[in-house]
Design brief:
heterodimer; A: 136 residues; mainly alpha; 87% helix; B: 72 residues; 434 Repressor (Amino-terminal Domain); two-stranded antiparallel ribbon; 5 helices; 2 strands; globular
Chain lengths: 136, 72
């Protein structure tokens, strides 16, 4: 498994965990609850620290690969995965705006957009793993 | 799984004929990762024209001796 695939797996796991954590907190607060800013900051902090530590450990374990620039296939994979994430984000934001236009719930709008960000990033890393394994 | 590109190649065969140069070494010489060399050999990825030329030049053969078009 290449260094970049390991990084993508790490981010997938971290993002999945962060999303579940935030969803669990939201569920506990009730569907129409205001944004849990404290939890959001905690999630962002854990995600950031986790990705820094995880990336550093992976880079130490594969120093040469970590220092090498992405090759042509890895750049192509990143482009394709980024496009899939971009489309996901657009769909999520459009759905959020549609919901807001129909029902006028700003809280739901916030949660929809936040969820779209998380899902889009997850799609990005999942697509990277898939394409790196498949061959791009 | 995606559709395989309509291009076959003899990279593994040439690599073995050239004294068994490793995938990592070939990748280093032509500027791609070992995983990309594996993907090329397994016909899961078609390299750029530049990389294709670099591979052919490394083995001292023409491009068409390495890559063969299989489509119509």
């Amino acid at each position: 498994m290449s260094f970049r695939e390991k990084i993508a797996w790490l981010m997938l796991v971290l993002l999945g965990g962060a999303a579940l954590w935030y969803l669990a907190v939201l569920h506990g607060l009730g569907g129409g609850a205001p944004p849990a800013i404290g939890t959001l900051l905690q999630v962002a902090g854990v995600l950031t620290i986790g990705s820094i530590i995880g990336s550093a450990v992976l880079a130490i374990l594969a120093r040469d690969e970590a220092q090498a620039p992405a090759d042509e296939r890895e750049r192509l994979v990143a482009l394709k995965a980024g496009r899939a994430a971009h489309l996901t984000l657009i769909c999520g934001v459009l759905a959020a705006l549609g919901w807001f236009a129909l029902f006028g719930s700003g809280l739901r709008l916030f949660h929809f957009v936040f969820a779209s960000l998380i899902v889009a990033q997850t799609v990005d890393y999942a697509a990277q793993v898939f394409l790196l394994r498949r061959g791009a | 799984m995606g559709k395989a590109p309509p291009i076959a190649n003899r990279v593994r065969e040439l690599r073995e004929a050239a004294g068994g140069i490793s995938q990592a070494e070939l990748g280093r010489v032509v500027g791609v990762t070992r995983q990309t060399v594996i993907a090329i050999e397994q016909n899961r990825y078609s390299p750029s024209l530049e990389t294709a030329f670099r591979i052919a030049r490394h083995f001292g053969v023409g491009l068409e001796e390495v890559f063969v078009w299989l489509g119509d």
